[in-house]
Amino acid sequence: MKTPGSNLDLNVAGFASRLLEVNETAARARVIAQTAGELFPATTVIVYVLEEDVEGQFWAARAIVGDGAEPDRRVEPSYGILGSLMQSPVTGIFEGSTLVREEYSHLNVRRTVRSITCVPLLANGTLVGAIEVISFENTPDHALLSDIEALSEIAGQALVSSQAYETERNNSLSSITRVTQFYDIEKVFSSTLEMDQLLPIIGNKSREMLECAGVNIWLVQGDGSLLLIHQSGVDATTHQDMVQAAGAGIAADVSDNGEPVLIETAEDERLVRRNANIEEGRVESIIAAPLIDKGSLVGVVEAVNRLDGAPFDDDDLFVLTSLNETASIALYNASLLQAERKVEVLEALVNVSQQITSTLDLDRVLKAVVNGPSTVIPYERAAIALEQRGRMQLRAVSGTSQFDPEDPQITLLRQTLEWASLLKEPLLISQHGEDISSDREETEAKFRHYFSQTASRAFYVVPLADEEGRVGVLSFESSDPDFLSVAHFEMIKVLSSQATVALRNASLYKEVAFVGVLQPLMQKKKEFLALEKHRRAVVLASACAAALFLVLFPMPLRVDGRATVAPAHAAHVGADVEGVVKQVLVKEGDPVRNGAVIATLEDWDYRDALAAAQAKRETAAALMNRALAANDDTEAGIQQAQSAYWTAEVARAQERLDRTLLRSPIDGVVATPHLENLVGHKLKSGETIADIVDNSQALVDLEIDQDDISLLAAGQTARVKLDGFPSRTFQGRVVVVSPVARLEGDTRHFYARVAVVNRDNVLRAGMQGRGKISTGWHPVGKVLFREPVMWIWSKLWYWFGW
Asked: Do 608 and 597 share a domain, yes or no?
C-alpha cells in the first residue's frame, strides 16, 4: 500500500499478518512498536495499553523499541501528554522547545528531546492505547505520521482482540486452578476425622482460597442458637465461643432461611449493626453460606474482608458454597467418628460396670476400676486409695498387680491422694509449659513438685463418697495435659458413682467371716447326702484312693524359669609399666595359653637402666676385690654394700624389663577387636590392652520365682534348652542361689546359677531359653497342688494373722 504524501511503501497486509502470528498483548504491542520504529529511525517508540484494576484506569507500557527513554510501568490516564489523548484522541506532535518537564515526567530520558509524537490507538471509536514516539534528532515528517495513523486502527483492533484472548485464557486457567484447588481441598478435608484438627483445616483452607482476612465457622446448638466453634484469621466483630441467637446477626439469618448472603458494602444496615462500637478491623464486605448435611442445616461459614480491598462478588459466594459442600461431608464423617467414640465409651462403661458389679471380691473390683477405662481414656496411670481405719491407703495402681510401698514414686502418689481425699468435688490440675492451672498457690507449688518428679502433666482426682461417708479417692494421670475430653469426664463421673457402690458392698462383704468358703461347702454337702448309699460309698472309696495316691506315690518336682547365659570368665591384660606398644602378636579370636605373650612394649629405656645397673654393680665388685687385695677392710666393706645395692637394682631393672612383655593370665580366646591397630599407642601403667575370655565353662542364670526358692540348693542337677539350639539340651549343676532378690516388673525373682560345660564354645553370653532344676522326688499331691495350697495358706495368714 502507498500512503499519499509518503515515499515509503507500507505493507498493511504484512503488518496484519505479523500481528496475527502472535496472540498475547505484549507480543502484539512489540510488533506495533517495531513497525513504528522502522518508520521513525533514531527514535524511541513506546506502545501503551489502557488497563484497569481495583485502583482504576491507567496507561501500561507494554513494548519499547529504541534507546534513550524508559517509561514508568504505570501512568495515570489524565497525566501529561498522554492525558491529552483522553480528552481528544487525535495524533499530536509536541515540540521539545515548548514542552515542560512535568508534561513528560513519566519518561526517564537520558538525551535532549526534540519532539514527542502521540498517536491514539482506537477500536470501534474507543481509545484502547497509544503509540509514543520520542525523537532526539529530527521532528517526524507529517507524511510519515499519516502512514502510522493508517496502522493505528488495525493495531487498536489487534490489542483489543489480544486482551480478549488473554482474559479468556486467564479465566480458563483460573477455572482449572479453581478445580484443582477444590480437588486438593477435598483431599485435605478428608485427611483427618478428628474434629479438633478438621475445623482449623476448614477455616485456614477457606481463608486461603477466598483470599480474605478471616473465616468464622458457626455450628447449630441444641436450642437453635449458633456457637462460633472456630475462627481463622482476624475478625474484630466476633470472638471464639461467641453465641448468636436467632435474628441476632448475619449468621443467624442464614441459619434461619438457609440461603447464602453476599454483602458488598459496609453501608448495609446489617454491617452497620455488626460494626457498631468497632474502631479498627471493621467488616467492609462479607459472604455467608450454610453448612447443610443431608438436607439439615448444621452450621454457617462466614468470610470477611477480601485481602485486596475489593468487595466480595458472586464468584466468591459460589466458591464458599462449594467449599461448604465438601466441608459438610468432612464434618459429617468427623461427627460419625465422635459418635463411634461415644459408643466405645458407653461400651467400656458397661463392661467395667459388669466387672465391678458381678463380684464382691474387693481386689477384683479395684483392678477393674483402675484398668478397665484404659480402653477409651488415654491415661498413663490410674490409682485408687480407700479409707481404712480413718486413714487413706493406696490399694491399686493400673498396670501392676503389686507395687512396692517403699518406691519413691508410689510414696509421692500416696501422699498426693491423701491430700486429695479432703476434696469435695473433682479437681483437674494440668501444666502447659510453665503454667499450672490452679487458683491456690499451695496447690500450684505442690503439683509443680509432683510434675517435676514424674512424667505427668495432668492429674485428675475424683472423691468417692456416698451417704455413709467417704469411701476413697480415684485419680488419673497423663503426660498430655489435655488428655480428657467432655465424653471422658462424663464417663468418669458415672464410673465413680458405680465404683463407690461396688467398693462399699465389697468392703462390707469382706467383713463377713468365712462367707466365701462356707456357702459353697454347705451346698456340696447337701448334694453329697442326697446321693444313694452305694454311690456315696463309691465316692468315698475313690476319694480315699485318690488321697493315698497323692500322698504316697512319688513324682519328680522340677522348678523351671527363664534362662540367660551369663558373661564368661574374662581376664584383662594390662600394662604394669608405662610404654609404647611395639608389637602385637595376636588378633581377635586367637586362642592363647596362660603366660603367652600378647604384645610387647618399647624397652630401650628399661634396657639402658638394666645395663647401667649392671655396670655399676661390676664396678663396685671390682673395687671391693681391689680393696681386699690391698687389705683395706674398711673400703672393702663399703664397696661390698655398694655391690649388694646395685645387685638389687639389677634385679628390679630386670623385673621392669620383663614387664614390657604383656602376657595372658589365663587360657582363653582374645576378645578385643582390632588389637593389631594398637601398635604405636602409648599405654599408661595399669591401662588395659586386651581381654581374654575363657568359654570352657559357662554360667547360666535361671530366673526363679520367690515362691520356689525354698526348693533350691547348690549341687542340684539342671537342664537348659536355649533358643539358639532348640535341638540340644545342656546339662549342668546349680553352683549358687542368689541371696538377694531382684525386682522384675511387678514380681521379685531369685537367680540360680548353673555351671554348664562349654567345651565346643557354642554358649555365648546373652543367649536365652528355658531351664529346669530337679529338686528331687516328692509326693504327687505336693507336685500338683503345691502352688494353690501355698496361696490358700497365705490368704489364711492374711485373714487371721497368727
From this structure: no
Rounded distance, CA 499 to CA 493, Å? 10
Same domain, 411 and 495: yes
**What is the total residue count of the chain?**
802
Residue where the block lists cell 459388669: 354
Asked if 339 and 319 touch (Cβ cutoff 8 Å), the reply is no
628 and 686 in a single domain? The answer is no
The CA-CA-CA angle for residues 217, 220, 225, to 5°, reads: 110
Helix (H, G, I), strand (E, B) or coil at 619: helix
- Asked whether the beta carbons of 3 and 146 are under 8 A apart, the reply is yes
Residue 120 lies in a domain: yes
State which H helix or E strand residue 319 sits in. Answer: helix 314-357
DSSP annotation of 310: P
Tell me: do 238 and 302 sit in the same domain: yes
CA distances from 778 to 502, 732, 790, 793 (A): 44, 22, 16, 19
Instruction: Enter the C-alpha cell of residue 332.
Output: 459429617
Q: Count other Cβ atoms within 10 Å, centred on residue 747.
A: 15
Mean pLDDT of 655-679: 83
Our count of domains for the chain comes to 6
Distance CA 30, CA 7 (A): 24
Q: What is the pLDDT of residue 8?
A: 41
Residue 697 parent element (H or E): strand 697-705
Q: How far apart are the first and last CA of the chain?
A: 131
Rounded (to 5) percent helix, strand, coil in the chain? 45, 30, 30
Q: Write out pLDDT tens, residues 215-256.
A: 888 887 777 788 888 888 888 888 888 888 877 888 888 887
Rounded-to-integer distance, Cα 10 and Cα 2, Å: 6
pLDDT of residue 380: 87
CB atoms within 10 A of CB 679: 12
Q: Is residue 528 part of a domain?
A: no
pLDDT of 459 reads: 92
Full DSSP string of 622-657? HHHHHHHHTT-HHHHHHHHHHHHHHHHHHHHHHHHH
Residue 579, pLDDT score: 84
- Say whether both 382 and 298 belong to one domain: no
For residues 285 and 312, the answer to whether their CB atoms sit within 8 Å is yes
Rounded CA-CA distance 506/577 in Å is: 74
Cell of 449: 513438685
Q: Alpha-carbon torsion 313, 316, 318, 320, what sign?
A: negative
In this predicted structure, the answer to whether residue 315 has a pLDDT above a threshold of 70 is: yes
Phi-psi region of 198 (alpha: psi -120 to 50; beta: other; left: phi over 0): alpha
Q: Give whole-number Cα distances, 184 to 177, 292, 326, in Å.
A: 10, 21, 11
Residues whose CB falls within 8 Å of the CB of residue 447, separated by 6 or more in sequence, listed in order: 429, 431, 436, 438, 459
3 band by pLDDT with thresholds 50, 70 and 90: very low
Distance CA 670, CA 693 (A): 6
Instruction: Tell me which residue of 661, 595, 659, 647 sits closest to 618, measured CA to CA.
Output: 647
Nearest residue to 451 via CA among 484, 472, 478: 478
Range of the domain at 108: 12-169
Percent of the chain with pLDDT over 70: 88
Contact 300, 204 (CB under 8 A): no
C-alpha cell belonging to residue 456: 505427668
SS3 string, 248-279, reads CCHHHHHHHHCCCEEECCCCCHHHHHHCCCCC
How far apart are alpha carbons 429 and 492 in whole angstroms?
16
Q: How far apart are CA 582 and CA 602, in angstroms?
A: 5
